[in-house]
């Protein structure tokens, strides 16, 4: 019987931002509002960009698995948190187990070597966490080990060097104390945003591996709180709820996708984060979910144009908590959860497997982001009334980092009044 351990994945997103992988060259080079890349990151950016297409494919494949599990509920997760944790796990995996993990993350191992993948994730973490981005994005990787388990020095050294891994000794034979230690750590690292991440720990657990992401961003153009009003949101044909609806009139990046019958509006955060708000026409959400791929995002990016709009967007808080072992198994990551697992690169012996993978994410969207922007700008409006775009039925929200072309978060908001 293999010894089991938990993997716990966490994303905390404050005020509507998530990381994800966009195709390269998504920027409009002539758009003065786009932030310029930091030239001294160019070497890191090259390493990161090797991961971009694969991380994007993983993000949207995983999205399709999540919505199959919870078809009529809010969805919110961080693909970069999941892929980072499993890339880190691949450091200690061997043979077929390692191959399945990396191929499950959509990497073609005939085109990219495992060392290149690890270097790319190392540089991605560094770039996403860089203070110059003006977006607070903290990625934390941690391992909690029973005292009896002696990990190989090479594994710990590599994981610390590549993933800034923090290691802690934990007494899993006392589940209550172990849960408190882990949950206190997670709550502190996510500024109180994620609480009670782990519960009902098995006393036989020997290791918990966690990847945590905390995001905090401010809208480039904040909404005025006095313009927020209660309006109707149409969950489905039978259900209507009241939500606080923010409102802003101005020029926005806009595109209508005729093939997918959806409206796309892009909002920037201060710094390098961007949100795509996607409103499908009535009855078209399922078509959008089933066909969404990275090339779709590229098409939207290429076709956005400035348009004067009267925009209504709900103020909401949602979270998602998922046991994702089954979803990952469907994507080809199988052996690591069974007695066929080979994680001998962690301890030197093969007596180890993953018993559970938990991912928890949360998102708050309000008028300011989290802090009011210091700048003031006046826009001159035409006298004619601009068209109104109102996000008053289920929609998607995708959050990207422009400096790394990464998909930070993917959300499907079915009912903004339900927080979890």
From TrEMBL:
GO terms for cellular component: extracellular space. Residues 1-20 form the signal peptide. Keywords: Glycoprotein, Protease inhibitor, Serine protease inhibitor, Signal. Transmembrane segments: none annotated. The keyword Kinase does not apply. Pfam families: Serpin. InterPro entries: Serpin_CS, Serpin_dom, Serpin_fam, Serpin_sf, Serpin_sf_1, Serpin_sf_2. It comes from the Eukaryota. GO terms for molecular function: serine-type endopeptidase inhibitor activity. Residues 60-416 form the Serpin domain. Residues 27-36 have a biased composition (Basic and acidic residues). Residues 21-40 are annotated as: Disordered. SUPFAM superfamilies: Serpins. Belongs to the serpin family. This is Alpha-1-antiproteinase 2-like. It comes from Strigops habroptila. The lineage of its organism: Eukaryota, Metazoa, Chordata, Craniata, Vertebrata.
């Amino acid at each position: 019987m293999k010894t089991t351990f938990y993997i716990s994945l966490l994303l905390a997103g404050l005020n509507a931002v998530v990381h994800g992988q966009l195709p390269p060259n998504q920027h409009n080079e002539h758009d003065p509002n786009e932030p310029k890349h930091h030239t001294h990151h160019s070497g890191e950016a090259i390493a990161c960009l090797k991961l971009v297409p694969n991380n994007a494919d993983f993000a949207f494949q995983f999205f399709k698995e999540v919505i199959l599990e919870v078809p009529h509920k809010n969805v919110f997760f961080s693909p970069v948190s999941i892929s980072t944790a499993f890339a880190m796990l691949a450091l200690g995996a061997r043979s077929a187990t390692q191959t399945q993990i990396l191929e499950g993350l959509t990497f073609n191992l005939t085109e990219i070597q495992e060392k290149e993948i690890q270097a790319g994730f190392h540089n991605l973490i560094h770039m996403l966490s860089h203070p110059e981005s003006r977006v607070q994005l903290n990625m934390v990787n941690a391992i909690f080990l029973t005292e009896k388990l002696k990990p190989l020095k090479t594994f710990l050294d590599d994981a610390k060097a590549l993933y800034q891994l923090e290691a802690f000794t934990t007494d899993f034979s006392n589940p209550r104390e172990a849960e408190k230690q882990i949950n206190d750590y997670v709550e502190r690292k996510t500024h109180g945003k994620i609480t009670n991440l782990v519960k009902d720990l098995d006393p036989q657990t020997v290791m918990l591996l966690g990847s945590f992401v905390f995001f905090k961003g401010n809208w480039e153009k904040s909404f005025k709180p006095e313009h927020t009003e209660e309006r109707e949101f149409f969950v489905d044909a039978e259900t209507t709820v009241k939500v606080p609806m923010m409102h802003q009139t101005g020029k926005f990046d806009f595109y209508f996708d005729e093939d997918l019958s959806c409206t796309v509006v892009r909002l920037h955060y201060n710094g390098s984060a961007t949100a795509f708000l996607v409103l499908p026409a009535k009855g078209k959400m399922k078509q959008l979910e089933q066909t969404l791929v990275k090339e779709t995002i590229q098409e939207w990016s290429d076709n956005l144009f400035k348009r004067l709009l009267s925009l209504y967007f709900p103020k909401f808080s949602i979270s998602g908590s998922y046991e994702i072992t089954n979803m990952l198994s469907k994507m080809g990551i199988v052996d690591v959860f069974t007695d066929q697992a080979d994680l001998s690169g962690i301890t030197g012996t093969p007596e180890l497997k993953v018993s559970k993978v938990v991912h928890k994410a949360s998102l708050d969207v309000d008028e300011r982001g989290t802090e009011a922007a210091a700048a003031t700008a006046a826009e001159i409006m035409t006298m004619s009334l601009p068209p109104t775009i109102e996000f008053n039925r289920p929609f998607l929200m995708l959050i990207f980092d422009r400096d790394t072309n990464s998909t930070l978060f993917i959300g499907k908001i079915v009912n903004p009044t339900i927080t979890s």
